[in-house]
Amino acid sequence: MMGPVAIAVLLVAVMAPRSSAELPQLEHPPKEDGLLTVLAVGDWGRRGQFNQTLVAKQMGITGEKMDIDFVVNVGDNFYDNGLTGVDDKAFEESFTDIYTAESLQKPWYTILGNHDYRGDALAQLSPILRKLDTRWICMKSFVVNADVADFFFVDTTPFVLSYWNNPKNNTYDWRGVAPREKYITNVLKDVDKALKQSTAAWKIVVGHHAIRSVSEHGDTQELIQQLLPILQANGVDLYINGHDHCLEHISSRDSPLQYLTSGAGSKAWRGIFTPNSDKLEFFYDGQGFMSLQLSMAEVHLAFYDVGGNVLYSWSHTKPVPY
What remark does the entry make about the cofactor (predicted)? Predict the structure, then answer.
């Protein structure tokens, strides 16, 4: 049976897009039992501070119990301003030295958050980091084909206009992104095409920024206007994000789409709650992470706190197509 490092190496070898107009497609082999089990976490990179090590410990325990396939990493990987380069020790101090459990030695499929763009964004995409830690699989937008589910990772930071026209005291690394309008147009076109091509039982989109959130940052209007219509038109089941440092489940009132925030990997407790027009199923303003288990017919998710307690769980079943 192929080990996690071998899987990561295999996936690195197929990272090139099939054509210039398509997102990179990574193949993740399924387990023999047909179940797909993942953990999702974000907004964590603080060299172990703000309970990052406690969250990591519980992720390791839960990962072992559930025999996870991989980790979905929703961005803001290194605070406050990303990495300074491929030799920045923050990579080991915030990632390799923290997530040490055997069960977490699986691929970490990773996107960038806004704090990552404040440093050397290209460093996180570098194969040099994958040589330092083979778990690290980071790109801007890509697809992971995992048998029962396809995961569509979307680079959401360039969508947020304020990062461009009102960056305050921050500097963003827009190499390979500017001009903004062309980049966003291409991302939306590629995501729409990839979703239309997908035949997986579950379609799951992953972005750093929330489409819907009741916490500090709230809804991301640019994503509501530009990305959400594509998700709804293509029957996306789940949207997973970070950015807000909390755990949330919000149900759409006008589609089957479920919004899941797992941005509580370290600093949390914002003390802000602002309801929106969709249905809030669960909200926790503290540190933790999420698990997701999928079969052809059923999805089961759970949110955990730093003590490993299950704060909330949710299941959904849909007919299996024949």
Answer: Binds 2 iron ions per subunit.
**Is 243 one of the annotated binding-site residues?**
yes
Whether this prediction's pTM lies above 0.85 is answered by yes
Active-site entry in 28, 209, 217, 249 = 217
Q: Return d(Cα 226, Cα 156) in angstroms, integer.
A: 11
Q: 197 near 203, Cβ under 8 Å?
A: no
- Tally helices (H) and strands (E) across the chain: 9, 15
Helix (H, G, I), strand (E, B) or coil at 122: helix
Domain boundaries, the chain: 33-317
Q: What angle do CA 197, 202, 206 make, to 5 degrees?
A: 85
pLDDT digits (tens, 9 = 90+) for 80-105: 999 999 999 999 999 999 999 999 99
State yes or no: is 217 an active-site residue.
yes
**Which two tokens mark 299?**
């999805």
Read off the tokens for 30. Answer: 């399924």
Known binder of ligand: residue 192? no
The answer to the question of whether 173 is labelled as a binding residue is no
245 has binding-site annotation: yes
C-alpha–C-alpha distance, residues 22 and 195, integer Å = 11
Cross-strand pairs, 205: 152, 239
Contact 76, 124 (CB under 8 A): no
**At which residue do the structure tokens 């926790």 appear?**
284
Return d(Cα 113, Cα 243) in angstroms, integer: 7
Pair of tokens at residue 56: 């990591």
- The amino acid that residue 14 corresponds to is V
pLDDT tens sequence across 136-181: 999 999 999 999 999 999 999 999 999 999 999 999 999 999 999 9
Query: Which residues on adjacent β-strands are paired with residue 291?
Result: 39, 302
**Residue 108 dihedral angles phi and psi, to the nearest 5°:** -105, 100
Q: Which CATH architecture has domain 33-317?
A: 4-Layer Sandwich (3.60)
Distance of CA 172 to the CA centre of its chain: 20
Task: Provide the 8-state DSSP code for 60.
Answer: H
